[in-house]
Write a structure and sequence with these properties.
Elements: H1 24-37, E1 44-48, E2 63-66, H2 72-82, E3 87-93, H3 94-100, H4 102-111, E4 116-121, E5 124-125, E6 131-132, H5 151-154, H6 160-164, E7 170-177, H7 181-199, E8 204-210, H8 214-217, H9 221-235, E9 239-243
Helix pairs in contact: 1-7, 3-4
Length: 246
């Protein structure tokens, strides 16, 4: 029988702590698949965040260092400057990169640091109970916006790819999703491209990944996947936002 899927060797034999239907597990697998295929396991260093992705060292057979909430890009910058031969990437959520870590991510991008940011956007603060995040959509119900996000009170959802695309230091920015098989394939290609650009010394790269969060969205798994296509993508369109020739 032909094998169509096998666990990446770099993904540890451990049970994920993520909620049912969460997209983090898919993203974790894709990262290890790409690093394994690029033969970078001896050089890769992941900067893990506070939040849902904080236990990446339990799952990845590569070096993982924990950062304070929002400081992933700053920690990755320090590591890359000291060890420029390594592949260094931060793994950050929307509350992490688009709120408390806005300054660190923005200025790392503006300086053109040769690092990669994997930005998981599920529109809420996942680990702490589903509160409104900077990327929460207008009218979206969360535990802190029970009647829906109001632009007059909380402003508008932050579009990281669009904002970072205006910075001269950014090299490659793409928004993808992991809610359907075809989307997962595209997400993997984007991650590989971002890592390759770092290997080539092209500068700052970021892959934003729209990820389902059924538990905090109060939806079924299938409904959450469909909601990304039907609602979320309207505000966060998929595609390449910047790709500077190497």
């Amino acid at each position: 029988m032909k094998t169509v899927y096998a666990r990446p060797k770099l993904l540890k034999e451990a049970d994920f702590h993520y909620c049912p239907g969460c997209g983090h597990g898919i993203i974790n697998r894709l990262l290890m698949e790409v690093i394994e295929e690029m033969d970078l396991q001896g050089d890769a260093i992941c900067v893990a965040p506070a939040g849902c992705g904080m236990l990446l060292y339990n799952y990845f057979e590569i070096d993982v260092i924990e950062s304070a909430h929002g400081r992933g890009a700053a920690v990755a910058t320090g590591i890359k400057r000291v060890r420029p031969q390594n592949l260094v990437f931060s793994y950050q959520g929307d509350g992490d990169l688009a709120a408390i870590g806005t300054a660190e991510g923005f200025h790392a991008a503006n300086r053109g640091e040769n690092i990669t940011v994997i930005f998981v956007n599920n529109g809420v603060y996942g680990m702490t109970g589903g509160q409104m995040a900077p990327t929460t959509l207008l009218d979206q119900v969360t535990t802190t916006t029970p009647t829906g996000r109001d632009a007059g009170l909380a402003g508008h959802p932050v579009r990281i790819c669009e904002v970072f695309s205006q910075l001269d230091g950014t090299s490659y920015l793409e928004r993808v999703a992991v809610n359907r098989p075809a989307a997962v394939v595209k997400a993997k290609k984007a991650i590989k491209k971002a890592f390759q650009r770092q290997v080539d010394g092209a500068g700052f790269s970021l892959v934003e990944i729209l990820s389902p969060c059924p538990v905090n969205w109060k939806m079924g798994t299938l409904e959450a996947c469909e909601w990304i296509d039907e609602v979320m993508v309207a505000h966060f369109p998929l595609g390449v936002f910047k790709e500077v020739p190497c």
